[in-house]
Amino acid sequence: MSDLLFDPGYCRNISLDIRYCLFIIDKFAGASHLVNEMTIVQ
Fold first, then answer.
1. Is the pTM of this model over 0.85?
2. How far apart are CA 24 and CA 3, in angstroms?
């Protein structure tokens, strides 16, 4: 959105560690099958 029209009252960014995202998908969302389908390189 901010690439088209920047409004400081509405434009926000969120940073998220992908490891935490994968943890939430696996443990709390009950979607471990999605994590198992991914090729995760460390």
1. no
2. 30
17: left (phi over 0), alpha (psi -120 to 50) or beta: beta
Label residues 8-26 b or e (16+ Cβ within 10 Å = b). eeeeeeeeeeeeeeeeebe
Domain boundaries, the chain: 17-42
pLDDT at 28: 85
Q: What pLDDT, in 10s, does the model give residues 5-41?
A: 777 777 677 788 988 988 888 888 888 888 888 887 8
The four Cα atoms 16, 20, 22, 26 give a dihedral, to 10 degrees, of -140
Is-contact 11 2, C-beta < 8 A?
yes
